[in-house]
User: Fold these one by one.
Assistant:
Number 1:
Amino acid sequence: MRAVLVGPPGAGKGTQAQILASELSIPKVSTGDIFRANVSGGTELGKQAKAYMDRGDLVPDEVTNAMVRDRLAQQDAQGGFLLDGFPRNVAQAETLNKILDDLGERLDAVLELKVDEEEIVKRLSGRRSCRNCNNVQHVVYDPPATEDVCDVCGGELFQREDDREEVVRHRLDVYHEQTEPLVSFYANEGILVTIEATGPVDEVTARAKAALRNGS
């Protein structure tokens, strides 16, 4: 299975990608993980990426494309992969097609996760991260026993810059402008499948697996 997950920030792509990749025994290829690793490591790429990410903007294509090309050429991705966070625009989708052509491969399916926009704002702006252990809680869905104190280690909970409501709404604007056209692009290629991504995680996973089986 060679698949791509598409959907707005906060749709649960990372969670579903982790579960689906494990159940399908294929690697999850997430540009978000790569960017965060570079940011936390203080690399030059991380410094460049952080400036864009803190504003809710996208990291430039040339940086992302090179990382994805190298990753998909690795041995563990030869039998399939699940892409999360790439492509983010039609130009990247066209680049991905060229990368796969070079590797003698093609996409089997593109899974779109749909979530109401106000639900996304509620999901993301309510997140709080621990400065000490990186545990993530939510002011509505997983409130800490003591306000602003991590339930796991007692560290300080804070709101990440890219979880502020105004940044979340900007990220959604960027998604609609740059990433949402992928839906039409892949629909025209005949490999798009769409599910509602609201509800318990296991129910969303069941919908995703059924859609991938039917769409591949």
Note: The longest strand covers residues 109-114.
Number 2:
Amino acid sequence: MPSAQQVLTEITQALAATNEALRTHPYPRALARGELPLSALRDFVGHQYHVVRSDLRSMSLMVHRFADGPAYDFVYGLFQGEVSAQRSLLKLAARLGLNEQELERYEPQAGGFAYAANLALAAAHGSAAELACALYVNFQAWGENCQRLSAALRQKGFTAEDTAFLDAFVAHPPSEQQVLVLLQDGLDRGVTPRAIHRATRLFQAYEQLFWDTLLALGRAP
């Protein structure tokens, strides 16, 4: 049986092309260069409003499922971060002229909500090892794109308060050491490297679909 470090390294290497595509996704760059109108960011906020609300319920379930195991601190930390994200997202929405009633009425695209649907499924049925690895790898790519998007908005006059939602994902990434402990625990309990790899691959694929969907919406006539 490979070690947790070996599994994490192999997964990261296998997903290198997808991870690079995410880190260099054209959406933040297009927004920074003015190739997309600033109004396109409303689709980002509209989708995130529904994604965050769904993710909060998913993470609440994870806290309940893993309350008496080694994954508790990891998933509870994610839950706390999501609670904070929900508040700061409303500030970004307000900067764009959107109130919560308008966000409630926003209809997300399937491609923009697929990540949240996948997290809900994984939260209900996935092992702690699968979730820890998938979210750790995913948050790295998500955090980098949030950083790129935040930088683009700062150049357009947005304040630190406006971009707090984006900046939080850069400042508080999951701990690799925590993830390795949970990976090893899962491997010791019989979770297969293939299952962990599959979970991580799907999260990254749905993340890419999210950004692709936003880019298509921004470019739509």
Note: The mean pLDDT is 96.
